[in-house]
Amino acid sequence: MPQISLHSPLGPITLSEEDGKIISLDWGWGRDQTETPLLCQAREWLDNWFDDPESAGSFPLPLDPYGTAYQKKIWAALQEIPVGETTTYGELAEKIGGSLQSVGQAVGRNPIPILIPCHRVVGASGLGGYSGDGGVDDKAWLLRLEGAKFPHHS
To answer: What is the DSSP letter of 81?
Structure first.
């Protein structure tokens, strides 16, 4: 499986490709490095996004996260949240159907964070969790980068 790593403001991240689609974004530097046209385009988009999320727009390349039909439905809804905006787990549960817990679990299992912007989902009275190495601090950093208004965490 081709992988490419890059330095980001949140530390090293690694993108993985399978069958011409991005399947994961992992925290840390990948062992194997294979530059494919898709991975190079994705790396370039991420570099631009970290410089200016608003002008980068939504991720334009094919994604294929591995998950259940329900998880994929949640992840598709995450991609509809505009840059700089947030929604709550409760609002997402109401829109998609399912419990707060099932929505939270699906958001937490997102295999392609940032590209599928799970950082834009917050709790009703706090940020909720985040998968990044820096946890909720990374989530707050990403939301500040996008200029989003969000509940502060302690």
So the answer is: S
Note if 118 is an active site residue. Answer: yes
Predicted confidence at residue 154, as pLDDT, reads: 47
Per-residue pLDDT of 64-90, as tens digits, reads 999 999 999 999 999 999 999 999 999
Which residue among 15, 114, 118, 143 is the active-site one? 118
- What is the model's pTM? 0.93
d(CA 69, CA 90): 20
Estimate to the nearest angstrom the gap between the alpha carbon of 103 and the chain centroid: 15
Integer-rounded Cα Rg, in Å, for the chain is 15
Q: Quickly count: other Cβ atoms within 10 Å of residue 51's Cβ.
A: 11
The angle formed by the CA atoms of residues 136, 122 and 42, to the nearest 5 degrees, is 70
What is the C-alpha separation between 144 and 123, in angstroms, rounded? 16
Per-residue pLDDT of 103-127, as tens digits, reads 999 999 999 999 999 999 999 888 8
- What does the alpha-carbon distance between residue 11 and residue 131 come to, in Å, rounded to a whole number? 13
CA 21, CA 47: separation in Å to the nearest integer? 19
d(CA 65, CA 80): 16
